[in-house]
Amino acid sequence: MASHYSTTPQKHASDVVVATPCGACKMLRKRCVEKCILAPHFPPTEPIRFTMAHRVFGASNIIKLLQELKESERADAVSSMVYEANARIIDPVYGSVGTIFQLQNQVNELQAQLAKAKAEIFNMNCQLEAMVSTEMCRSSQTISQQIYDEFKHDSSESSSPFVYLDNDQDSSWDIIWA
Ligand SMILES: [Zn+2]
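^ thats the input. predicted complex w/ zinc ion below
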């Protein structure tokens, strides 16, 4: 069928072939055009990204999915697909769900460890409080003992229980007992 274009048709940007194909087109061995939908997300410097995504999802599905999305959402969708593809290659059964389970288990284990550590801290604080109050009790007993010892010491120096009274102060007793 003859083309309705002239011999030198004006090419659209979507038809302009670029010299350096993107990572996706390079891998698929096809011409990469200026408006290649895959080019912004699969640079030729990171061919492994497309290799992984293509192996799991297939190039046509990736293109179809990107076409259905807004341009602002495509980068996240590609990142997600590359991540999922990597996970699926590592774990063909669970893919990224396997990673989620693993991380969830790790969270549970860490929460259990945290609860245990909190309980230990609580017990240690209780022990510390008990020690401090015992020590306070002991030191107050020591002070009482010291006072008592001092009293006894002073008492033993005099045969009289009226330790603070000298003989010449006997008259004061008269006043007290009066
Ligand atoms: Zn391309």
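DSSP finds six helices and no strands in the chain.
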